[in-house]
Amino acid sequence: MDWIYFVQRVGEGVTRPTVSVGLRELASNAPIKIGLSIAPASRVAQVSREVECALRLVGLERGTAQREADLHKRFSEHARGGEWFEPTSELIEYIVALPSPEIDLGQFECAPAPRRARRAVRGPRFRGAIELDAYLREHGVTVPAFCQAHGFDRHRLQPLLNGTSKRGPGADLILRLEEETGGRVAIDMWRGPPS
User: Fold this and answer.
1) Rounded to two decimals, what is the model's pTM?
2) Judging by beta carbons within 10 Å of its beta carbon (0-12, 13-18, 19+), is residue 186 exposed, middle or buried?
3) Domain ranges of the chain
């Protein structure tokens, strides 16, 4: 069974926890990621390496991809991009109300491991990616929810939206995006170099 996990950045620039319930401590100024994994401890370590900062697992509940998408939609007004959200009082209250895990979540605080090479920084994006991002925001849909609803590969679409893709989308993806967005993300938006 899958787990929905909630992680928060810790360390420099993060205020002392303002909410502490049982073994949970949440800061008021650090974004919270809502993700899904069958192995949340490993996933937290992986995300820590990806974002290159220390993270703390602050919540855990059993769930499905649909439940994760529902949570993303519920908190979409305060989305910061991808699966990261502002630590609003509603989100903090949701996490605090989760049943207390039988493990100390603090043991899953991860510092990023040294990397051999820096991750690609956000680069230029195709006009189609910018328009798709606007379309998703206007419809209050997260990338995982959109991909699940329309059968797209999230790991292929997310790098295009982030500007970290090393190549453009294939013709099949462009055609399907135009179809699924009712022509809003048109084929010609993917021509030429990214801007």
Assistant:
1) 0.54
2) middle
3) 3-108, 127-190
